[in-house]
Amino acid sequence: MDPIVMQAMVKWPSVPNVFGWLALDRRGNWLIKGDRIANPGIIAFIARNYAQDELGRWFFQNGPQRVFVTLGYTPLVACVAADAPSRLQSHLGQHIERVSGAWIDEDGSLLLRWEVGVGVLNDQDLTSVLAMLTDVRGNAPSDAELDRALDHDTRRQATGLYLDYAGNRVPIGRIRSTEVSRKFGFNPAPRQPEGEPEC
pLDDT below 50 — which residues of the chain? Predict the structure, then answer.
């Protein structure tokens, strides 16, 4: 977090939290009351001061005040780095060094876990990431293998696909979108606790 933010937290420790104002969509855009934030300085400030509390609620620490975030899907969003098409980064602008888990949900969304947490891949980058997918033999998957991987009617958890990223091959499993927040321990829609002052 920014030093100025930490100083403000010490100076004003009892500022009420904010709920329902800030959201993160599935493409990594910040929204305030439904309107997209476009100012690069504000986006960078939010990114530097974005964290998770002990209840799995993600928030933006705005000076002394916590602004809890409503999540469009996951607390992080992965995308292809603009300066390196073979690299991934989070919506916070941090390069993803190592992917430790990968899943496809019933809608065909690709979820990735890395050192910071779990994120959905921005759907606009799915075509670019297809080049990182392999079959069990390390070859580019066929159209039939891709179709089987997206078939959620099957009872098998494994898709038969792997994500080959940064020298590491990660098997891609299946997951239901309704299971994601529970499995990864986050609250997608924090609400104002009863009796807590409203801001």
Answer: 8-9, 11-12
